[in-house]
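Anyone else keep sequences and structure tokens together like this?

Example one:
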Amino acid sequence: MAQEEIIFPNNIRNIRLANGMKMTELARQAGLSLSAVSKIEKGVRRLNQKQLLNICNILGCKLSDIFIKESDDVANQWQDEIKRRMTDNENNGLKIFGSGLRKIRQQAGKTIARAAKDAGMTLSVYHKIEVGQREIYTNEIEPLAKSFALGAEELFEKIANLYKSGELNKHMNKVKERVKSVLEPGSPLSGIDMGGGLYGAKLYDSARKKLIPVFGTPSGKALTLKKSDKTMIVAPISLEGRNGIYAVVPNAKRLGGIIPEKSYVFADALVTPKVGDMAICMDVDFDTLDADTNVVAHIVTVKQDAKGKIYGQAMFPEEKINAKTMHKIIMIVME
């Protein structure tokens, strides 16, 4: 029997159970069907960035908590299950049939959407057949073959000949490599040069590139800043994948309306601001902070005194802020 192959090993089920939450409740709060949540927890359906953030908020966990680490007790179980499903699907001939069908479709110049429609199937079902994750039923063979102007026996014969010629090997191996790459962070397929590390490193890195951590929130006249990725937001397109970027929620009243309420201020920890720039400043060494330490930070305008010393000028009321660290504010975005 064909089994959907695991592409997203994750800790979501364990975190949900630890919170005493039923799957139905997670589905309701996440705005997903029960079937979708079940597939996500089983690892056969991936989440996009917004869904990942939503799940994290509902479960009260960090993004990094969701992804399986090599040191996790369940890592070997996931790996064994992935390999078993791949082997089962190869041994029962579904990989060969699916790869052959894909080759015939390509030779006919059809898109997968067009081929699915011609065969009277949904796009999802047709795709699963092509990647060897779904059986073909007797009543489906004839319309499938007919969509390529073939009879049922002709379709089987053509796929057999393609297999014998070796033309299907490349695609079959590619499908296998893509599935296995979730266990191999250093794989060329991941596009990330990482040795060792996480089973889900490729997936985490891909998601993380499109997200930005919110380090600071209003606290009195200042900000409380913690260098943690527990709260994250989707990155503006121009900031995707940039290192050193973080966001703070400004204290709009302290700033006298210069920055609108319900907005995010983005700073670049790798860029030193110049006189006249706006910046996030703090009287600590930012690089030495850990994820559990709270520090006081301010949004300031960078100034220079008569002796050439750089300082931060807070506003409403005006206040001179001396700081060891200043990061240039590069963008302000309303929610």
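And example two:
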Amino acid sequence: MKKITIKVNLNNNSYPIIISKNLLNNTGVEIKKIAPKAKKFLLITDKNIPKSYIRLVLSSIKSKNKYLFTLSAGEKSKNMNFTNAIIKKLFKYNFNRDDCVIALGGGVIGDLSGFASSIFKRGVNFVQIPTTLLAQVDSSIGGKTGINSNEGKNMIGTFYQPKLVLIDPITLKSLPHRHLVAGYAEILKYALIMNAKFFSWLEKNSHAIINLTDMNQLMYAIKESCKSKAIIVQKDEKEKNLRAILNFGHTFAHAFEAVKKYSNDLIHGEAVLYGMMIASSLSVKMKMLNIREHQRIKY
């Protein structure tokens, strides 16, 4: 499948989502298109990201003023301490709003980097390069940023749209199977809330996604998911009404994650899967979903 570009149309906050194989080594070229005045670049990543990905991104940026900040992996890094650490780096290297922060990693890196970018000098250019399936189809799109607190997950945050989202499905080859299943949960969510045809397609092709056996089918699933997210975000950027539909299964999911103290015992996508199953069962009891459709969702 060739390079795919999806535009998120939000007036002054519009941006492209680019989906293509071997995209990491074109990072610098793509950033130049959307942030031509950027002279300094901070790449934020975590210890689980392969060094080869980091090298590809950094080598693609033709600037002497490029810096790397590597964090511990996992939800426990999504806090104010790491936010302050990022901001201190930006001040240390004299960044201004024309410069660029790049998030290379999963949802945690994207949420944290986006939040820090949004509050540094009231907003610095921010680019998402999601490397997990969940981040590629969900958290990297739409501008939700945030960190966790004692009061709950993502209770401190902003709406701050990226300037660009770069999705390279090749990065998924480094993921454990568990994380592919977790990402599939969000793909399934889009099909359930707004695309019956896509749901029928997933019933036949889910194995190709979670086992990475067909790159074209994988890219199709990513494309359809990104299109669905973009449609909703364009209609309701700040989650005043319609966008809340994207939280299907998440009410229960966040409760499960809190009980597990945001540990690796239960990752977000797994919690969403359980949450959608419970929400569907509740819908059956409330006579809002028939048994046959419920069985299709379960299996």
